[in-house]
Amino acid sequence: MPLIKWDNSFSVNVAEIDGQHQKLVSLINSLDDAMRQGRGKEVLDKTIAELINYAATHFQTEEKYFEQFGYPEKDEHKREHGYFVQKVSAFKKEMDERRLGLTIEVMNFLSHWLTNHIKGTDKKYSQFFNEKGLK
Ligand SMILES: [Fe+2]
Q1: Which domains, and CATH codes, for the chain?
Q2: 94 C-alpha to center of ligand 1: Å?
Q3: What separation in Å is there between the alpha carbon of 38 and the centre of ligand 1?
């Protein structure tokens, strides 16, 4: 069972961004599978690094459109991205220092943050972007 199951309630009505969100969901699900299957530290480290890199790419995409179209809620939105980057980097650091294993609590944080962010904060830009012709 995937930790997060994508359905249409996740759609922000912008094809490129939906595609990136699906990839983030799939990376979090892979990480959860790897943890549950008791995969080695190498696999977990590799997957978490991939998640951090991809999240950065994705946030850059959204933030590029915020600037391009003058999205009024950009500062607040960018702060949420910053919070996620900071939390996940802190997890990675603790894991690297072997002070923390990947736990259900970490996985729950990742899945809840992403789900709430997409369905709450991201969905607020759908209409704005669509009106600017971004679909
Ligand atoms: Fe976002």
Answers
A1: 20-131 (1.20.120.50)
A2: 25
A3: 31
